[in-house]
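User: Can you recover a sequence for this backbone? Please restate the input before giving your answer.

Assistant: Of course. Working from this structure:
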């Protein structure tokens, strides 16, 4: 995945949103962290992976992918906000043991919290790596993610124009 290209697209979108809402001099870090946690909650909800009380199937893959890339938006945005937009991720690590989706969601939540505390490059990379591990469990390839990111990025611009 061409992460650098996505970082550039994210920078443009963030600037556009901040200008539109007169927020250029505001610290948006914690609001973006909460937005990210909420998006990942929405993602978990669409997969229904934790709903042991229900037999209803998960949402279609396309819906799950859309939720997943909302999370990518906020992760990249947090990186930019922290000056970590030059991060180069190592090639995707495969988990050595079979991890459940439930477990991986909880791990990602923990990673986000760690990054919020330290704002370090190391924790930023771990957060993205574990989110990409979740993508793997969900059955998404890097290409799926890149394409879905590009189309949601465009939707986000349109929504700003429409006074969203
Ligand atoms: O500074 C920002 C703020 C938002 N976004 C993007 C991330 C995400 O792709 C979208 C917000 O999520 P969503 O589209 O789910 O918006 P919502 O307001 O939560 O949607 P809804 O009203 O449909 O629940 O805006 C950014 O990229 N940068």
């Amino acid at each position: 995945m061409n992460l650098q290209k996505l970082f550039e697209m994210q920078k443009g979108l963030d600037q556009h949103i901040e200008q539109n809402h007169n927020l250029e001099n505001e610290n948006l870090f914690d609001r973006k962290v909460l937005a990210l946690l909420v998006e990942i909650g929405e993602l978990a909800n669409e997969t229904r992976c934790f709903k042991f009380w229900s037999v209803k199937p998960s949402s279609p893959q396309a819906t799950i992918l859309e939720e997943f890339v909302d999370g990518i938006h906020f992760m990249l945005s947090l990186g930019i906000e922290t000056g970590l937009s030059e991060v180069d991720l190592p090639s995707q690590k495969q988990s050595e043991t079979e991890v459940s989706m439930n477990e991986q969601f909880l791990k990602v939540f923990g990673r986000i919290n760690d990054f919020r505390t330290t704002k370090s490059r190391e924790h930023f990379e771990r957060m993205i790596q574990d989110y990409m591990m979740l993508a793997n469990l969900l059955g998404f390839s890097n290409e799926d993610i890149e394409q879905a990111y590009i189309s949601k990025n465009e939707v986000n611009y349109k929504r700003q124009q429409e006074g969203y």
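That completes the design. Residues 10 and 77 are 6 Å apart (CA to CA).
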